[in-house]
Amino acid sequence: MIDVKTKRIVVTGGAGFLGRAVVSTLERRGCETVFVPRKKEYDLTERANIQRMLRELRPDIIVHAAGTVGGIGANRATPGTFFYENAIMGIELIEQARRAGLEKLVIVGTVCAYPKFSPVPFREDDLWSGYPEETNAAYGIAKKSLLVQAQAYRQEFGFNAIYLLPVNLYGPGDNFDEKSSHVIPALIRKFLEANEQKKNSVVVWGTGTATREFLYAEDAAEGIVLATEKYEGAEPVNLGSGSEISVKDLVQTLAHLTGFAGRIEWDSSKPDGQPRRQLDTSRAEREFGFKAKFSFEEGLRKTIEWYRTMRSS
Questions:
Q1: Which residues pair with 267 in a beta bridge?
Q2: Global pTM?
Q3: β-bridge pairing 245-246 and 211-212
Q4: Which residues does the chain have with pLDDT short of 50?
Q5: Most CB within 10 Å of its CB: which of 62, 116, 118, 195?
Q6: Distance between CA atoms of 246 and 40, rounded to whole angstroms?
């Protein structure tokens, strides 16, 4: 087991939604030397910046949580950007970290790497059984390529890189931008704005039949830190809550929690995305004792409360 209190740790993407939760979790563990490289200082799509970061910050461990991310709309609008930036950041970081003799690299992948029609619940062994859902395939494949590189480097160089697959995340501090947000923050914003503007209906993408699993960001961060401390394996590991909800039920739940009593209009001309999404989380529990703690409704209430406070400040 690694004692993170004694290590110099870099969290790429540490100023982002998940990254901030990882940094907070490390600090609660007593880790005093945590670095958060900002893009304006270290643009990780450039090799020279990665080399400089490694030279200047001298990390023992890197948690790679940086990424170019967004919802279905953003993935459809800029798939080339999503592919290139996510792939090049990871590929160069793994190579330069290996050359620098890094003790451990923790790669945060994505549930979007799974095939469109994976058997439910998604098991890590099914990761290569088909092509990802089309609207986020470029992003998912870019991230999945890092698993191949990590396993190849472990085999050839003995490089200690692990790969984690978190499901869709949510929580306070999420991205609520109307053009790039994921489903939960997008819906919360829509319902609260509809209340403010006294609208009697809200339009939601898709048919509502797709299902999703969600993991509170604080839970995800705990899983990442546990894996950093305890997991040394080559195989990918899912991080999830283990529960599935339809988008229709999610919409109804959020409407209730935000106090929106109007009509829901489904725009079926817009894509549903992957038909079903739920992870088998048994490997994470077995390998490093991770199990999500926050109930879904508790997490949603905290997220709504945070966003309301932010809007009024």
A1: 205
A2: 0.93
A3: antiparallel
A4: none
A5: 62
A6: 39
- pLDDT tens digit string along 88-111? 999 999 999 999 999 999 999 999
pLDDT digits (tens, 9 = 90+) for 126-152: 999 999 999 999 999 999 999 999 999
Gap between the Cα atoms of 271 and 131, Å rounded: 17
155 CB contacts (<8 Å, ≥6 apart)?
Answer: 234
Determine whether 231 is an active site residue. Answer: no
Q: What is the 3-state secondary structure (H, E, C) of the chain?
A: CCCHHHCCEEEECCCCHHHHHHHHHHHHCCCCCEECCCCCCCCCCCHHHHHHHHHHHCCCEEEECCCCCCCHHHHHHCHHHHHHHHHHHHHHHHHHHHHHCCCEEEEECCHHHCECCCCCCECHHHCCCCCECHHHHHHHHHHHHHHHHHHHHHHHHCCCEEEEEECEEECCCCCCCCCCCCHHHHHHHHHHHHHHCCCCEEEEECCCCCEECEEEHHHHHHHHHHHHHHCCCCCCEEECCCCCEEHHHHHHHHHHHHCCCCEEEEECCCCCCCCCCCECCHHHHHHHCCCCCCCHHHHHHHHHHHHHHHHHC
- Rg for the chain (alpha carbons), in Å? 19
Q: Which one from 42, 114, 139, 216 is the annotated catalytic residue?
A: 139
**Residue length of the chain:** 313
pLDDT at 295: 94
